[in-house]
Each structure stands twice: as C-alpha cells, then as structure tokens.
Design brief:
Length: 366
Amino acid sequence: MTPTEACIALNMLPTMGPVRLRKLLEVFETPDRILSARRDALRSVEGIGREVVDQTVNWETIVDLPAELARIRDFGASVITAESALYPRQLREIHSPPIVLYVWGELTERDQHAIAVIGSRRTTHYGLEAAKRLSYQLAYAGLTVISGLARGIDTAAHHGALAAKGRTVAVIGSGLSKLYPPENAALAEKIRSGNGAVVSEFSMEIEPDRQTFPMRNRIISGWSHGVLVVEAGLNSGALISVTQALEQGRSVYAVPGHINAPSAQGSNRLIQQGAKLVMDASDILDDLQILLPETRPSPAAAVRSLPALSEEERRVYDAIRETETSIDDIATKADLPSGTVSSILLHLELKRLVKQLPGKYFVKLG
C-alpha cells in the first residue's frame, strides 16, 4: 500500500479527520503504520478515543479501498496528499488541512497564488457582472481564482476567469462523482479541460449536505491569499467563509452593493467592519504585491524581462517615460485614442508593468 492509498483509506473513516490524523502521525510517522497499528498503541495517543481506535483497527471492514481506487481511476481523477509539491502551501498551514485532495483536472505551481471570489447563490445582475469582471481581471493578472462552483457568484467567478484564459479551481462540497449543482457539469468539464481543476476532500460518492459545505469553505479560504466577497446577504454562507478566512489570517475584500438590496447587506456590512472596499482588481493586487513573487532582474540583467505584449500594448508601454507621464502625453506619443490608451493601461497595471499615480499619471514598475 502506498502512502497516498493509506491516506485515502484514513480519509474515508467517518471519525478520523485531519486533526486526529495529525496527532497519530506525530506518533506513527506514516499513514500506513497507523492502519497497521495495534489497538493499545492507538489508544495511547492523546485525543484518540475508543471509536476512532475501533474504526482504525477495523478499517478494512469499513472502507472498500480497491473499489474507491477504481472509481478514482475510472473518473479520470487523481489524489494528492500534503506531501505532494502541488498541495497548496497556504492550505498546509491551516488548523485542519484536508488529509487528501481529489483532483479532476490539473494543478500547477501557478495555483499556489490564488484569490477566492465568493458570494450569494441568489444574486443580482450587478453582482454577477461584478464577479465576472473582477475575476477576469484577477485571472488576467496571473492569479488563480478559487470558488465553489455554486450557483450565483461562484459560477460567475469561474466564467470570468475562463474568459480571461486564466486559471480557476472549483472546490466542491461533495465527491467528484456527485458533482453539485448538476447544472454546472458543463462548467466543471470546461474548468478541468486545461484551465484548472475541480477539487474535493471527500471520497468519490459522498453526497453534499449541510456539513460538507462549511468544510469546503475552509479549503477555499485556506488555499487563497485573500477572500473577495462580491455580494452576500446577512445570512449568506459566504460570511462563514469570511469568518474562516479571518481565523486563518487571510485578507478580506468586499464589493459595495446597493444599500437597498438584501443580497448586498452582508457584504456592505463587511466594509463597515473593515474589509477593504474593492472597485477594481488593482485594489487587491496592490495589497498582494508583498505576498506574491515578482520577477526581479539578476545582477547581470539591465531590465526586467517583459511578458508578451500586443503591438498596441508595446506602443503604450514605450510611451511612458522614466519619470511620471500623464495619460495625455502617453496617448500623443503612442498615437492612439485616449479611450484605447486607458483600456491598455489597465491591462498593463494588471500585468504589474505600470502603476497609476494621482492625477492620471503613470510610471513603469521594475
């Protein structure tokens, strides 16, 4: 039995959980040793009660591991543990990191740098458009957008990231073969087909319920550098994610909504309580610059290497002098309409190539 297979079996035990597993690993060191441990040795571990011991000793009568491995294989999924290089580093640090992550699609190193975009299932047109726009900008800037594949804001967030040809990860509150909601099956397929992954900590056939969604939410916030609430009512489940994010030491952002809209009362209240008000992705990117790795020139390099730019993006970039340059001067030198220049400057800001200063002046970064 491989260490990953042992983790899958332990994850399927009803009373195990990541906190108890951590205590057991401190004593037995590897997951396979836990499964083969004697009853008296298991009972000697602090915090491990009789029910956990009974289930661990009799795990083969509770868990059909060969059948689960077959389901994973047939579905085209994979499973990673905290020992995997692709397991999110931020997620390892939370109080109860998932024992395993079932992955349908592909995770990359880029997915270590993520922002959660969440909100209500029942939302307004304004909320949906804001979620799409901000997720597009964040994904375009290189962040992976994490959300929960739920109706409403989550769905809009995934679509926005996909429209930018960026990365997005959907963390669901069920097993992969019980994907919920079922109408998002096509969206899940699109995400896993080269644009990200659908991820779950639950074994393949676990149905969604009231307990699985809060568990899912701690992964969404724990994986991310920060959580953006686009639109949420006072009783929205998104506010549970905010509480978890704060406990995990993550930043919280919120989009202001109409003061008369019930669907925005929770997110507006967050702003009152100190969440950073977000009107544009740059409001988040400015915060995250201290957290995210930047491309820095080596001592032998004269300038920072640039990403691929379109012809118009290059003209606008080259039109910015070494000192502060007004948008009018940039438009004149680039010989482009001011509206086109404004749009291109936003793209360059999201790529962290330029920064806007007060008075519509711009400078190059790096």
